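--- STAGE predict ---
source: upstream dedup step, 1 unique chain passed
mode: sequence only
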Amino acid sequence: MLFRSKQQIRLSRRECELLHALASRPNAVISKPDLGRRIWGVNRSAKNNVEVHISQVRRKLRALGAGTVVRTVRGYGYMMVSDPTRESLEARVRAIV
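--- STAGE serialize ---
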């Protein structure tokens, strides 16, 4: 379950594990294959599973008014942003290059 004030949202076991994996490394990018192995424990790519569950987690976080907390790093994976007002990782990388 996710709680904010008096609101609550039910998470599936996989959604909870995915959110925990991202929250355990805030502001760090975790690749889709790494998330797939952590959550589903498989060697094959669980890319579609990861994408579907990320989408569901984002929808549920938005329902609580959390905004953009899980960011996509195109071509690589996802990161949980501890401060959603910060620039995305992609924007920072482009600024360096």
